[in-house]
Amino acid sequence: MGKTITIEGVTRIEGHARISIQVDDKGKVQDAQFHVTQFRGFEKFVEGRPYPEMPSVMARICGICPVSHLMASAKACDDLMAVEVPETGVKLRKLMNLAQLVQSHALSFFHLSSPDLIFGMDGDPKLRNIFGLINKRPEFAKDGVLLRKFGQEIIALLGGKKIHPAWVVPGGVSAPLTAEKRETILASIPDALARAQRGLESFHEVAEKFPQEEEVFANFPTMFAGLVTPSGGLEHYDGTMRFVDENAKTVAEFSNPKFYSDFIGEAVENFSYLKFPYFKPKGYPEGIYRVGPLARLVVAERCGTPLADQELASFRAKLGRAPQSSFHYHWARLIEILYGIETIKKLLEDPNILDTRVRSRARPNRLEGVGISEAPRGTLIHHYKIDDNGQMRWANLIIATGHNNLAMNRGVRQVAERFVNGHRLNEGMLNRVEAVIRCFDPCLSCSTHALGQMPMHIELRGPGGELFDELRRS
Ligand code: MG
Ligand code: NI
Hints:
Elements: E1 3-8, E2 18-23, E3 29-35, H1 42-45, H2 54-58, H3 66-81, H4 87-119, H5 130-136, H6 138-159, E4 168-169, E5 172-173, H7 179-207, H8 211-216, E6 223-228, E7 240-244, E8 250-254, H9 260-263, E9 264-267, E10 276-279, E11 289-290, H10 293-299, H11 306-319, H12 329-349, E12 368-375, E13 378-386, E14 392-398, H13 400-403, H14 405-419, H15 427-440, H16 444-447, E15 457-461, E16 467-472
Parallel strand pairs: 1-16, 2-15, 6-11
Antiparallel strand pairs: 1-2, 1-15, 2-3, 4-5, 6-7, 7-8, 9-10, 12-13, 13-14, 15-16
The structure holds magnesium ion and nickel (II) ion.
């Protein structure tokens, strides 16, 4: 008889989840799953509400990425109204979206993942956390804190409050940018850029020390997906949705979000409430693809800003055009931080960024609308149907963490096959199984459309389902 290992309360990811590992009598791994176990029906909950409320209601899905939901939701509403958002309205939305990208990536890299990189995967768990980091590398930890603050302050300046800003509305944004706010943000750019560059230097000092992790942290060929600009550059707000194969060759593209369901199917597995999106033309599960920072750097031909492109050139020189290991999400995330700060500067220096025409008004002119944008974690899709009175009839959300669900599950299995052996878990195994998931930076509050935290554990079980070992962390 074999056994199952359950890792409950995966730490240092946003929210909580559970991992099960099945082993045979000899302790050899047979299978593994990453479960998301709690569900709150946000899609049902919004039915009957007026569509203009959606951006601020949907932002409440997640305390971690409210801005991402604001963007996708507002874009779905623009589509319902059949309006074009004024140019400056688009630029201001992009500004907030990139501020969210920078602060979220800083949290993921500096706070959640770098303790593993600085202290090692087998490092003492008492030190291998944000507090240990503050003691050992105070300047590095401070860079992370202040990069987050940089992004959060832009969001607060634009939206009026850091969480759930109501400034992004259907048709554009509710107020233009003032010259004073523009100067305040511009003044903070050089400091943020310096911190991002130091973060990259620190990453390069330690990145070479993880050949085993690079080898088995979800290292297999998949497709990649994400938005690109019309000329194929890196894009987070709007543009063409592109799917590429494991060699970065374009397989499919669509510019009108309404075609998403021709390309993306959603499978259901009985062990998780989080659905398993897949590339429809290839079927399930062969249509496995990845989204997020690594995927965006594979689907895009270039970043389009000098510092980020310089770093992208080294990234490609070292790892190739389409790196297969999810360990490289970390480097990709840091490149995107650079890109985000550089692009925020570029947007603010645009002469018409202070234009006061920032919002288009209209009644609903379509009964169905779709909005797609890139959340820090990957592509986010909001799809709404309304009735003739403008009340929500139906909603479907496909969130970033969902797209990566197949790859995260296979990654957990790959890591377990390498590091788990026998009928007992040790700290190094446990941490690596969690660390592969942290590469993807999943947001579990978003994933389940749930509020708050979910209970979670890791369990080691046999073929008969008997429990060998389990670990819980909070
Ligand atoms: Mg859904
Ligand atoms: Ni979220």
